[in-house]
C-alpha cells in the first residue's frame, strides 16, 4: 500500500511538474471529446424533441378504423386487456353521435359531436374527471367558447328524430364538468359517458331508452354491436403491431405509422453516424495518447529505473503511465464538458428560437456525462497499456548505466 501511495503521489507530482506537456494532452483529448459531445447533444436533443412531440400528442398514438365494422363488447374487452393498448372505447354511427346544445349565455344552438369517454382517456389528461352518468359532459374548448360556458354551468341538450311519421325532440339537462384543452381538438365535441352515447343512438333508431323515459320500440338486443371504436396505443412503438393485428382481422386502419417509422429511422441513422465518428475519434486519440506515453516512458527511463532500483515492483511501475493517463482523461473530460455546456447554451439560446422550437435543441442528461467519463477513462487506460508495457521492461540496472 505504501508503494501504491508513493506511485500515486510521484505520478501526480511529475504530471503537474510537466504542466505544459500535460496541458497539451488535456487539450488534445478535449478537442476530440467536446465535438462528439456536441454532436451527440444535438442528436439526442433533436430526436428527443421529435419523439416527445409524437408521444405527448395522443393523436399520434391513435389507431383509427376506416369505414364501418362490427365490434361487440367482448372484442372491445379483449383489446382493452392488451398490454400495448392504453385506451379503447366504442363509437356509434356518426349520424347518431350528434346532439344539439343550448346555453343561457349564448343565442345559438350548437350541433355537437358526441364522443364516449372513460377513465384514462388520453385526450382528457390532468385533473378533469370523466362523466359518471347521463347528466354530465366535458366540452371541447371550441364548443365551450361558442356556448360561452365553463365548468359548473348547466346547458340544455336535445335530440330529434322522425318516428312513426312524427317529428320528435327530447331534452336533457347536462352539467359541464370540464373543458378540454384547445390542443385536444378544434372540432365541437362533447365527451360523455358511453351510456349517453348509446342512448342517443337508440333514440334516433326509434328504440326506447327506459332510463331517461324516452319512448320507442322495445330495445332487446342480445349482443350490442358497435360500428367503430376509439383506440390509443400505450406507446408510439406499439402502433405498428396493433395496426398489423387489426388488419389481419380484415379491418382498414389509419395511423401515423409512416411518421413514427421516419422518426425511428432518423434516430437509428444518426446513432450509426455518431458511433462511427466516435469510434474513429477514440481510436485516433488512443494511438496518439499511447504513443505519447510510450515516448514519455522512454524519456523518463532513468527515473523509472531508479524506482525499480529502490524496490518498486514492475506492477507498481506500470501504474505510473496508467495514472497519468487517467489524469489526462479526467481533466480532458472536465474541459470537454465545460466547452460543451458553453456551446449548448449558444445553440439553444440563438438557434432553437429561429427554428420555432419551444424545447431545447441540444441537451444531454446527467447519465450521458457519466458515460462519457467512464468510456474516456477506459480508453485512456487501454491507451496507457503501451506505455505500461514499456515501463515494465525497464530494469534496475538501466539507471546505473547512466550514473
Distance between the termini: 30 Å
Structural class based on helices, strands and sheet pairing: alpha+beta
Q: What Rg, in angstroms, do the CA atoms define?
A: 35 Å
Secondary structure: number of strands: 12
Overview of the molecule:
With 403 residues, the chain is an alpha+beta fold. It has 2 domains: 2-55 and 262-401, no CATH class; 97-199, no CATH class. 53% of the residues lie in helices and 18% in strands. The protein has 11 helices and 12 strands. The strands form 3 sheets. Strands 4-5-9-6-8-7 form a 6-stranded mixed barrel. Strands 3-11-1-12 form a 4-stranded antiparallel sheet, with helices on one face. A two-stranded antiparallel sheet has the order 2-10. Helix 2 crosses helix 9, helix 7 (257-299) runs parallel beside helix 10 (366-392) and helix 9 runs antiparallel to helix 10 (366-392). The chain is elongated, with a radius of gyration of 35 Å. The model has no long low-confidence stretch (mean pLDDT 80).
Supply database-style keywords.
403 residues, alpha+beta
Offer a concise description of the structure:
This protein has 403 residues and is an alpha+beta fold.
Set out the fold topology.
Blueprint: H1 2-17, H2 19-56, E1 62-66, E2 71-72, H3 73-80, E3 85-91, E4 98-102, E5 110-117, E6 136-139, H4 141-147, E7 154-163, E8 166-179, E9 189-193, H5 194-204, E10 225-226, E11 228-233, H6 239-248, E12 252-254, H7 257-299, H8 301-309, H9 314-354, H10 366-392, H11 397-401
Parallel strand pairs: 5-9, 6-8
Antiparallel strand pairs: 1-11, 1-12, 2-10, 3-11, 4-5, 4-7, 6-9, 7-8
Amino acid at each position: 500500500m505504501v508503494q501504491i501511495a508513493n506511485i500515486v503521489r510521484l505520478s501526480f507530482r511529475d504530471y503537474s511538474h510537466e504542466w505544459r506537456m500535460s496541458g497539451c494532452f488535456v487539450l488534445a483529448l478535449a478537442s476530440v471529446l467536446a465535438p462528439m459531445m456536441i454532436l451527440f447533444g444535438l442528436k439526442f436533443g433533436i430526436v428527443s424533441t421529435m419523439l416527445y412531440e409524437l408521444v405527448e400528442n395522443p393523436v399520434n398514438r391513435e389507431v383509427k378504423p376506416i369505414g364501418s365494422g362490427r365490434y361487440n363488447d367482448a372484442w372491445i374487452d379483449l383489446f382493452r386487456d392488451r398490454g400495448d393498448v392504453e385506451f379503447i372505447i366504442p363509437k356509434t354511427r356518426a349520424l347518431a353521435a350528434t346532439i344539439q346544445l343550448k346555453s343561457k349565455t349564448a343565442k345559438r344552438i350548437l350541433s355537437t359531436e358526441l364522443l364516449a369517454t372513460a377513465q384514462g382517456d388520453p385526450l382528457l389528461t390532468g385533473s378533469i374527471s370523466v362523466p359518471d352518468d347521463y347528466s354530465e359532459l366535458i366540452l371541447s374548448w371550441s364548443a365551450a367558447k361558442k356556448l360561452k360556458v365553463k365548468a359548473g354551468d348547466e346547458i340544455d341538450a336535445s335530440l330529434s328524430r322522425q318516428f312513426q311519421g312524427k317529428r320528435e325532440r327530447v331534452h336533457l339537462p347536462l352539467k359541464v364538468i370540464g373543458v378540454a384543452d384547445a390542443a385536444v381538438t378544434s372540432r365541437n365535441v362533447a365527451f360523455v359517458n358511453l351510456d349517453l352515447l348509446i342512448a342517443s343512438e337508440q333514440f334516433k333508431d326509434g328504440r326506447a331508452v327506459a332510463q331517461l323515459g324516452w319512448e320507442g320500440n322495445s330495445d332487446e338486443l342480445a349482443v350490442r354491436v358497435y360500428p367503430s371504436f376509439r383506440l390509443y396505443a400505450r406507446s408510439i412503438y406499439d402502433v405498428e403491431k396493433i395496426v398489423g393485428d387489426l388488419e389481419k382481422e380484415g379491418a382498414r386502419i389509419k395511423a401515423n405509422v409512416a411518421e413514427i417509422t421516419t422518426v425511428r429511422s432518423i434516430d437509428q441513422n444518426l446513432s450509426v453516424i455518431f458511433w462511427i465518428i466516435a469510434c474513429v475519434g477514440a481510436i485516433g486519440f488512443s494511438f496518439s495518447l499511447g504513443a505519447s506515453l510510450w515516448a514519455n516512458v522512454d524519456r523518463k527511463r532513468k527515473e523509472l529505473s531508479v524506482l525499480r532500483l529502490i524496490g518498486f515492483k514492475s506492477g507498481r511501475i506500470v501504474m505510473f503511465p496508467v495514472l497519468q493517463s487517467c489524469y489526462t482523461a479526467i481533466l480532458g473530460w472536465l474541459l470537454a464538458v465545460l466547452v460543451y455546456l458553453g456551446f449548448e447554451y449558444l445553440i439553444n439560446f440563438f438557434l432553437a428560437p429561429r427554428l420555432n422550437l419551444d424545447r431545447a435543441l441540444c441537451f444531454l442528461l446527467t447519465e450521458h456525462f457519466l458515460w462519457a467519463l467512464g468510456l474516456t477513462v477506459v480508453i485512456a487506460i487501454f491507451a496507457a497499456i503501451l506505455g505500461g508495457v514499456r515501463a515494465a521492461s525497464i530494469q534496475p540496472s538501466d539507471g546505473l548505466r547512466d550514473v
